[in-house]
Amino acid sequence: MCFMSNSRLCAVLLATASVLCASAPALAKGQVPKPDHVVLVMEENHSYSEVIGNGAAKYINTLAQNGALFTQSFAVEHPSQPNYLDLFSGTNQGVNGDACPNDYGNIANEESELIKKGLSFRGYSEGLPEKGSLVCTQGEYARKHVPWTNFTNDPGKFSLPFTKFSKNYDKLPTVSWIIPNLEDDMHDGTVEQGDTWLQDNIASYVSWVNTHNSLLIVTWDEDDGTENNQIATLFIGPMVKAGQYSEHINHYNVLRTIEAMYGLKPIANEKSVQPITDVWQ
Fold first, then answer.
1. pLDDT tens readout for residues 17-38
2. Between 58-66 and 7-15, two packed helices, what is the crossing angle to 10 degrees?
3. Residue ranges of the domains in the chain?
4. What is the pTM of this model?
5. Long-range contacts of 91-95 (CB under 8 A, 24+ apart)
6. Other CB atoms within 10 Å distance of the CB of residue 90
7. Residue in 150, 153, 152, 157 with CA at minimum distance from that of residue 173
8. Is the pLDDT of residue 103 over 60?
9. What CATH topology corresponds to 7-272?
10. pLDDT in tens, 169-187
11. CA-to-CA distance for 164 and 179, rounded, in angstroms?
12. Alpha-carbon distance 6 to 1, whole Å?
């Protein structure tokens, strides 16, 4: 069954489900694939049941039916900023609030480990006033949701406005983070508004990954305080076995999985968890 009222889009996504399976190389048990590109989109402050099965999130629910949906996915803590740090650096860096600015120094994180390996990272933030900007807020942009800006090993030039996100997907870096603004990530805007933004800005990448060795991850920073911090997490790509997966995962597992894809050593608290291995073709 498809949740989409947009029958044309729904038909396209359902028709390509077979392509997802056909184009992915087989993996041995316990292994993870090595995508050419990973794009991770962060959403905000909504629990699992506020999104999954919600008619206001039609596009997200169609993605969930054509990818891997983790039914027991959890944020690590509250409020927002520590969770972004957990997913980016394997620890909240001692932060327990949303204060800005912060400086965590030259500490290992996803970006620094990718660069050390000769790979690439870019962060694309909607509303960022200019490349490398360290402003805490401007309009609907919030630096508290952009973790790489707080590390001295971030070159700055890799922190970009979302307008720089290339539609020539072959040219994307190894790993990209996309941070919608406070209206479009569901923090201040509605679930429907966030869902529409995702469809308008990510659907073409989803269509592209159907026939390319690349991956989309959509997840939330935290819930709304009503479901023990349970959130939705989705993996979409040709290497993914579509279905629902009930193992308990959190931000550390997602980070560990991305780092395992590129042979990176686990850092900080992610050393205590395992990469996700059961969702791959």
1. 444 444 555 675 679 999 999 9
2. 10
3. 7-272
4. 0.91
5. 91/268, 91/269, 93/150
6. 26
7. 157
8. yes
9. Alkaline Phosphatase, subunit A (3.40.720)
10. 999 999 999 999 999 999 9
11. 13
12. 13
